[in-house]
Each structure stands twice: as structure tokens, then as C-alpha cells.
Amino acid sequence: GNSVTQMEGPVTLSEEAFLTINCTYTATGYPSLFWYVQYPGEGLQLLLKATKADDKGSNKGFEATYRKETTSFHLEKGSVQVSDSAVYFCARTPNTGNQFYFGTGTSLTVIP
Amino acid sequence: DTGVSQDPRHKITKRGQNVTFRCDPISEHNRLYWYRQTLGQGPEFLTYFQNEAQLEKSRLLSDRFSAERPKGSFSTLEIQRTEQGDSAMYLCASSSNSIRSGNTIYFGEGSWLTVV
Fold first, then answer.
1. pLDDT tops 90 at residue B60
2. Contact B106 A46 (CB under 8 A)
3. Half-sphere exposure of A13 toward its Cβ, with a 13 Å CA cutoff?
């Protein structure tokens, strides 16, 4: 299959808390993996990516490591800010064809 | 700004009317995608172009939907005889087939459609 499964939300954290949003995928082969972020009323913005096993993508304090053995790409941030409040989508490239596959999104709210 | 541009950003239309959305991809990108997103869901693939050729279409793309990319640059997505179930955000994305790009797709801001 080509599915992406991510942790259901919503997630509410206090400012400076540690964030983990789980993402697992099914694939034959080695897809590229992505995290996108969507702020209210806007399109999706690329947050980070990893193209091969054991790669770590990082951006704006967020990190995710491509784990082939667990088929996972969990998103982490050590200290969240109010401005991180958004919906986060895990995505992967297909085995064949051209449609990227997205998870259903995890809504994060960070309170002061 | 050389990102993906979509127009209009918001459209309210009466049921049964036709609507058209336009997408201008990043200039050097030869691949263009249309996705649909409803509230609380992830983007769902509609169609894909490589240059001017429409190479892939989802089953979601009913016969009321048509997409074109006549010169391999901008694209249009037309919905005929709109229904309330068409209310969604329509996202355009583009990518390059260069190895350096790592298959990354870049999204526009989206076009919100409300059918009343």
C-alpha cells in the first residue's frame, strides 16, 4: 500500500513543552518523506524532508529522522512556541505514479 | 516572490454555476499537481501534469472537472455545474524533476470554493 498514518489530534501543549507527532508509512521500497505545515487559511508549506534511511530533516527547531526499521518519520521539537500552532501533515512520495500521499493532519495548539 | 500562485483565493458560487481556478507554478518547474482539501482532512490528489501533458487523474476527478496546462506553464481547473459537495480548498503544487530537488512539491496558498 501507499498509506501514511499520523497521530490524531488535536494536540494542546504549553509553551516550551516538548512536541512529538508520530508518523508511520507503508511502502515497498524507499520513499522520500516530508512534513508540511499549514497555518489557518493558507496552503501547505514544506517544513522538512528526508530522502533516504537514517537521514534527519530539520528546520526551525523541528526534526524528523527517517527510520526504515520502524517505517516511521516522527516529528519532534524540543521547545514549542505559540507561533507553532498549526496543522502538521506527514507525506511520502509514491512507489509508482506521481501522487504524493498525505496523512490526515495533526492540529497543534500551543498556549502561553 | 517566485512561489506557486493561485487565483482567486476565495470564490463563492451558486450551485450549478461553473468556476475556474488558475495556478501559476514556480517558473522552472515542469511538474504541476492539483489537490483538493476539505476541513479536517489531508490533501487528496486530483491530477498531475508534466509539461503540458496530463499524465495522471484521480477517480475523484469526475467528468464535471477538467484541468488544462496548454503551454506547460500555468494551469486551470474548471468545475462545471458545481455542487455543494465541491466546497473545498483547491491546492496547486509544482515540482522539478531534478535530482537535487529530491521530489519536493511546493504548494500555493490554495483557492477556497464555497458552493451555496
1. no
2. yes
3. 22
